[in-house]
Amino acid sequence: MAIEDRNIVLHVNDVHKTFGGLHALADIDLAVEEGKTHAIIGPNGAGKSTLLNVIVGRLAPTKGAVVFDGDVLTGKKPYEINQMGVARVFQTPEIFPELSVLHNVMAPAFAKRDGAFKLNMWQLLRGEKDVQDEAEHILEDVGLIARRDDHAGSLSRGDKRRMELAMCLIQHPRLLLLDEPTAGMSRHDTNTTIELLQKIKQRGMTKVIIEHDMHVVFSLADKISVLAGGRIISEGAPDEVRNDPKVQVAYLGGAEE
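Now predict its structure.
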């Protein structure tokens, strides 16, 4: 599919991924509009996390390419893709457990600015008031300001995910990829995260969300793509997808999580 619309910030163009004889992804053609929230849903094993790993450069597609803002991401290293304005909240939080919560959030700001963590990062963490102020403001947004001085490793799984979201937000990404951002959270924390992501949307940030919780999906998504067996079987506005019989059979009512 040729994409000429200037509003398309991410285009996954005819992507296939095979592992031996297993076709994890096939004929994936995905167009994400700038400023929108695009959800990817489907049962376990559908290929959702594989697709995100292809987008961020952790996996190379067997065929096809990923294009971000007119630049081909395929073949670039994950840190290079991050430098281009793509950030990801992982299904399993990736944090610095021995650092404080505040320093975890400050560190990516320096990596984004300087290209890598420098040997004097610890001096930077202590010395830059502007970055610290922004990190504290973001921690307040995600509800973790009271834990700012705690070791990150002491946080609950849900709080680690919120902290990792803060670590992404301080980078001011143009595209935010969220792999099950509310997994492990209570309903109250899930609703707080939904409110935060709605606030981010108002600021114009583009998001791609993989999520099993349909309450989260239908609260946030402008458009939904449904994966099953490594292929997109349905795509459209939330109400269109909700009422698609193929989706009801494959995911919403006819398949186990």
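The longest strand covers residues 8-19.
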